[in-house]
Amino acid sequence: IRRKTVTPGAGEHPLQYNYTFWYSRRTPSRPANTQSYEQNIRQMGTVASVEQFWKFYSHLVRPGDLTGHSDFHLFKEGIKPMWEDEANKNGGKWIIRLRKGLASRFWENIILAMLGEQFMVGEEICGVVVSIRFQEDILSIWNKTANDQVTTSRIRDTLRRVLNLPPNTIMEYKTHNDSLKYMSQFTGDNSSFR
Amino acid sequence: GTRIIYDRKFLLDCRNSPIAR
Question: Which of the 8 DSSP states describes residue A95?
């Protein structure tokens, strides 16, 4: 499918990168192998400026109001929110588990930090995900190079600052390769946060 | 090249611009 190129409009503030919103929802009856995962993620739209972002975002349901097993993803245009994507395959993610009720606020804050280029790690950031689950919600930020410790530490420190996380917040880094191995061992499940 | 950096306050202020609504 050819998509129209998205560019900032007149008088708008351009973003460093274009970003695409995705939505996915797990069908409980189906095992989430790569094919079904890919069928379940939907591109919603791409933004190129701060104003386009707000216009789009303001019309979205807040993640905290989503039900069931669903995810919002905001990734740089051209990167699919899947482990298998070229930009993600050597990468990993920081994971923060959130108690219920916090997802909407943390989601907005992590997006603003990404769009505003607050992480200062060059081209390393791929995107962010908020995963709505039954007991707790999960926020994650994906980067390209899992074994680059300078980058991953800087992302962690920036997250603590921009999300204003209490010092005792547990943050876990997972490489996509490990996620893939771990999940496929049990279920053949090998895509995003499942 | 130059990097386009925006702080949180600036981004939030843009939310109220007529173009963003």
Answer: E
**Buried residues in A175-192 as b, exposed as e (16+ CB within 10 A):** bbeebbeebeeeeebbbb
What is the arithmetic mean of pLDDT over A147-163?
A: 97
Which residues of chain B are within 8 Å of residue A9 when distances are taken between CB atoms?
19
Q: How far apart are CA A98 and CA A105, in angstroms?
A: 11
Its ipTM equals 0.93
Q: Is A122 left (phi over 0), alpha (psi -120 to 50) or beta?
A: left
| CA dist A65 → A4, A132, A185, B7 (Å) | 30, 9, 33, 27
For residue A131, the cross-strand partners are A71, A138
Give the tokens for residue A152.
């991953």
pLDDT digits (tens, 9 = 90+) for A73-88: 999 999 999 999 999 9
Give the nearest partner residue to A112 out of B11, B19, B20, using CB atoms.
B11
Single out the residue of A78, A71, A70, A24 nearest to residue A46, CA to CA. Answer: A78
Q: Which of residues 1-21 of B touch A (CB under 8 A)?
A: 3-8, 10-12, 14-15, 17, 19-21
Contact status, residue A183 vs residue A194, Cβ threshold 8 Å: yes
